[in-house]
């Protein structure tokens, strides 16, 4: 039944009306969208393709202290509308040519609209989507088929309900790390020790070899260049989940161009660059600690103290391609991610406890059989 009363315009309808044709199709005037796996924009209506001019762009890395001093290009460089999700905290930038009515990260429809242009630092580089929507759906189908210990009807009745490509925000940092370390290097040596034992009611004196450690103060230095230490700045995807679709091949990073976002969603970063550097420098310091531990001579060490300083720190804001998706199985929603560069897929799926129980019982039975076999039977 049709509702005759006109409801107030929703955010998505406004987005439709306010559509800005920044990348207009030469043939039909529709908005061109970035075509995954290519260097082209493509018209979804008439199929016209137009290659993206990459001749005039370059990506620069920034010094860390530039953050306070120098103004930066802000926003995504194309008309976007921001949606901040009340539920998960993610802010999604939605180009004018796509309609978004609910949060792509948590599925919540309680989203607030932000009409202001985002004042985020513009990304320097991104990895364009290589996996298109059809391949992402194909990945889902073969993934769900290949899972073990799942309900029999999972692949038959699980229904893909949502799949959206989102450029997710990251920071990468480069640094020259220099570490000085001090430690007690331990060298093992053996001493012969006499002791008294009781044998057949008599005390006897015996000897044994005992390991001792000689501690020698030692010190050293270690330096290394760290390239592209990657820090996730997403609020919508938990880092643990994101890590499951790692790695991204950062060699494929290309200078940012707004065209590459046309028709795709992007998340605005939720972690500012300085707090991100705090995390990155801790990660690098931990790697330096391990590198210094290897340098300590001897058989073992104690009291290792490492002092690491960073030099020539540079940073970039990076967008990486991720397909976010959800499927329904028996009225429950399960979420999964597809790496938009490599196609690696990870996600949640229901278990079949009956099958797991059976497998455990079978394994126990086999183990029992094996035990009797090696014991020569009962
Ligand atoms: Zn067209
Ligand atoms: Zn959300």
How would you explain this protein's 3D organization?
The chain is of the alpha+beta class. The protein has two domains: 11-184 and 218-347, no CATH class; 185-217, no CATH class. 21% of the residues lie in helices and 39% in strands. It is flat and about 105 Å long. The protein starts with 10 loop residues before the first helix and ends with a helix. 30% of the residues are buried. The model is unreliable at 1-21 (pLDDT under 50). It binds zinc ion (2 copies). Residues 25, 27-28, 30, 43, 45-46, 48 line the site of one zinc ion.
**What best-fitting shape do the alpha-carbon axes yield?**
flat
Q: Supply the helix-strand structural class.
A: alpha+beta
In whole angstroms, the N-to-C terminal distance is 76 Å
How many distinct helices?
A: 7
Could you list the spans in which at least 5 consecutive residues all have pLDDT below 50?
A: 1-21
Question: Strand tally, please?
Answer: 15
Arithmetic mean of pLDDT: 86
Bound molecules: zinc ion
Q: How many structural units, i.e. domains?
A: 2
Q: Provide the gyration radius in Å.
A: 29 Å
Structure keywords:
378 residues, alpha+beta, 2 domains, three-stranded antiparallel β-sheet, 7 helices, 39% strand, disordered N terminus, binds zinc ion
């Amino acid at each position: 039944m049709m509702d005759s009363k006109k409801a107030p315009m929703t955010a998505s309808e406004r987005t439709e009306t306010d559509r800005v044709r920044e990348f207009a199709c030469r043939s039909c005037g529709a908005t061109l969208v970035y075509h995954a796996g290519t260097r082209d924009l493509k018209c979804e209506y008439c199929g016209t393709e137009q290659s993206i001019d990459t001749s005039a762009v370059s990506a620069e890395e920034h010094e860390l202290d530039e953050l306070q001093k120098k103004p930066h290009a802000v926003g995504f460089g194309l008309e976007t509308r921001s949606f901040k999700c009340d539920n998960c905290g993610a802010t999604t930038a939605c180009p004018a040519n796509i309609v978004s009515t609910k949060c792509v990260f948590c599925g919540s429809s309680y989203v607030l609209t932000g009409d202001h242009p985002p004042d985020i630092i513009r990304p320097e580089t991104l990895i364009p989507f290589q996996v298109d929507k059809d391949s992402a759906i194909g990945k889902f189908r073969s993934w769900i088929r290949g899972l073990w210990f799942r309900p029999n009807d999972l692949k038959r009745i699980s229904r893909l309900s949502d799949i959206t490509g989102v450029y997710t925000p990251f920071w990468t940092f480069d640094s020259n790390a220099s570490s000085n370390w001090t430690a007690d290097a331990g060298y093992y040596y053996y001493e012969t020790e006499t002791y008294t034992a009781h044998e057949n009611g008599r005390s006897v004196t015996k000897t044994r070899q005992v390991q001792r450690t000689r501690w020698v103060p030692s010190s050293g230095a270690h330096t290394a260049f760290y390239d592209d230490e990657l820090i996730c700045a997403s609020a919508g995807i938990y880092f643990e989940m994101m890590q499951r679709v790692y790695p991204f091949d950062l060699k494929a990073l290309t200078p940012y161009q707004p065209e590459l976002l046309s028709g795709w969603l992007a998340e605005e970063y939720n972690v500012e660059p300085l707090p991100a550097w705090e995390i990155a420098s801790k990660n690098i310091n931990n790697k330096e600690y391990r590198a210094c531990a290897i340098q300590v001579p001897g058989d073992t060490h104690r009291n290792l103290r490492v002092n690491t300083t960073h030099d020539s720190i540079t940073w970039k804001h990076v967008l990486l391609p991720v397909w976010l998706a959800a499927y329904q199985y028996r009225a429950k929603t399960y979420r999964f991610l597809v790496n938009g560069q490599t196609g690696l897929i990870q996600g949640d799926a229901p278990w079949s406890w009956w099958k797991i129980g059976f497998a455990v019982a079978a394994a126990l039975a086999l183990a029992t059989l094996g035990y009797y076999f090696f014991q020569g039977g009962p």
